[in-house]
Write a structure and sequence with these properties.
This protein has 267 residues and is α+β, with helices and mostly antiparallel strands. The protein folds into 2 domains: 152 residues, Jelly Rolls, CATH 2.60.120; 105 residues, Homeodomain-like (Arc Repressor Mutant, subunit A), CATH 1.10.10.60. It contains 11 helices and 10 strands. The strands form 2 sheets. Strands 1, 3, 6, 8, 9 and 10 form a 6-stranded antiparallel sheet that branches. Helix 8 packs antiparallel against helix 9. The longest helix has 24 residues. The termini are far apart. The mean pLDDT is 86.
Length: 267
């Protein structure tokens, strides 16, 4: 890691949004390359996030970092859903601070122990949007600096080898979203016994292998509904579900709307 020159630091808070019902956060299931570095701080519900094709389930108490310049896709997968979204600029001598800290690659979602402190930092940053002044801007920069500090501490403290053990499994899941897959097949990709595999996977990702796989299918279905003219039956078949009625129930259970209603909202 390059030595940082504190005198040359530029910490700039851009926008902080609070998505709180009745405000509906649609996310972006089509995907785009991020223009700004961004943080997600989930307070209630779950968010499914993909960065460069790598999937994460972001739960309350977890902070997600979305690096600029990388493809990102995301949406909420439960109701109700409450989240802060913050876009920011952080540089040292004109170079991206997150990259200099070694945070622009690797594990983008971390558990935060100081949950109350983190919530206060985002809440105070959100107030800047309502009460703009030099003093509040100074406070926003201080809040952002502390958010980056807490994220960096969590990243450096969290071992990434557990997730690395499932790289082949995740790649297999992404390639097999058009058909049913059992836990035995998934365990074989990690060279583990199924019972141990399920336990280890859930500990690492916070959800079961089949639940994670189901969310990948759901994300693919959302993408197809939002970006293609395929029929609902064709979308269902594209994620390995032959019963269209079951697909519609599955979709509404997780998204709160039917596939047709979802498509209408995005169109």
């Amino acid at each position: 890691m390059n030595k940082l020159k504190i005198r040359d630091l530029h910490i700039g808070h851009k926008k902080t949004y609070l998505y709180l019902p009745p405000i509906v956060w649609k996310g972006d299931v089509v995907g785009h390359v991020g223009v700004n570095d961004t943080f997600f701080w989930v307070l209630e519900g779950e968010c499914f996030l993909m960065i460069k094709g790598e999937g994460y389930v972001v739960r309350p108490g977890q902070l997600a970092f979305l690096p600029k310049g990388k493809m990102r896709t995301y949406t909420h997968i439960s109701e109700p859903f409450v989240m802060y979204e913050m876009s920011f600029l952080a540089e040292s001598e004109g170079e991206n601070l997150m990259a200099l800290l070694g945070l622009a690659e690797g594990e983008y979602v971390v558990d935060i122990k100081e949950r109350e402190e983190m919530s206060h930092l985002f809440e105070n940053s959100h107030r800047v949007e309502m009460f703009k002044s030099p003093v509040y801007s100074l406070g926003a920069a201080a809040n952002l600096t502390n958010i980056i500090r807490l994220y960096a501490q969590a990243r450096f403290a969290a071992p990434e080898k557990d997730r690395a053990a499932f790289q082949a499994t995740l790649a297999f899941m992404k390639s097999a979203t058009d058909r049913p897959v059992n836990n035995g097949e998934l365990a074989a990709t990690a060279f583990m016994q199924p019972t141990y595999f399920i336990r280890k996977f859930k500990k690492t990702f916070g959800t079961s292998p089949q639940s994670y796989f189901g969310r990948l299918k759901l994300m693919k279905a959302m993408h197809l509904l939002a970006s293609t003219a395929l029929t609902v039956e064709e979308v269902a078949a594209g994620v390995g579900i032959t019963d269209t009625s079951y697909f519609s129930r599955f979709f509404k259970k997780h998204c709160g709307v039917t596939p047709v209603e979802f498509r209408r909202a995005f169109r």
